[in-house]
Specification:
Elements: H1 3-6, E1 17-22, E2 31-37, E3 53-55, H2 66-71, E4 73-78, E5 80-85, E6 92-98, E7 104-112, E8 118-126, E9 137-139, H3 147-151, H4 158-164, E10 173-177
Parallel strand pairs: 2-8, 3-8
Antiparallel strand pairs: 1-2, 1-4, 4-7, 5-6, 6-10, 7-8, 8-9
């Protein structure tokens, strides 16, 4: 990844290249690399959608995702994320992050695309804590003790993975309303996007 790619981005849209961490083999160290935010394995032959999310409840059993869940797990790095309250017009975006502003590690899965590059989907779980006020789902954000196990390529049994991996305390998450400029990724990209209204 170039320095340009690693620099701050305040409005990361689906269908773009994002920073992720993966461990390619048991003998290699985790690496930071670029992945396309959209999951479509090469065996899908370019057909169908490119989901950006996978539900934690079904990711280990869904035919489209289960091989990646067993063998190709990664982390997507973020300081926060946006969700929109649906019963407002226009939809009101909120920025969600840790109260202590520590980085977030989103659990994700990846697969090789037809073009040979890697594409990923972020796992989501039912919303917890204050995030319920904004949306009914949220990213699966791993606690620090889970990161090594989540990346481990030799860990393939779904029950073992579930027993070794945990999410952060929901009380760590806070949110506030932000500008609707977030709704137009091509126009709004600066740090003003996360300023409270």
């Amino acid at each position: 990844m170039s320095e340009r790619d690693i620099g701050p981005r305040y409005n990361v849209a689906p269908g773009t290249w994002i920073a992720s961490i993966r461990q390619a083999s048991e003998d290699s160290a985790p690496t930071l690399e670029e992945m396309w935010w959209g999951f479509r394995p090469s065996w899908a032959k370019g057909k169908g959608t490119q989901p950006i999310n996978a539900r934690v409840e079904t990711v280990a059993t869904n035919n489209f995702f289960k091989s990646a869940f067993a063998k190709h797990r990664c982390l997507v790095l973020a300081d926060g994320w946006y969700e929109w309250i649906k019963n407002t017009s226009p939809k009101q975006p909120h920025y969600l992050c840790r109260q202590d502003r520590e980085p977030l590690y989103f659990a994700a899965i990846y697969a090789k695309r037809e073009d040979g590059r890697l594409g990923c989907a972020i796992l989501t779980e039912p919303a917890r804590g204050s995030s319920i006020d904004v949306h009914d789902r949220m990213p699966l954000i791993l606690n620090d003790d889970s990161l090594e196990s989540w990346l481990a390529p030799d860990l393939t049994d779904k029950e073992t993975i579930r027993n070794l991996v945990g999410h952060i305390d929901a009380d760590l998450i806070e949110h506030w309303p932000v500008s609707t400029a977030v709704n137009k990724p091509s126009e709004g990209q600066g740090d003003e996007l996360i300023n409270p209204l």
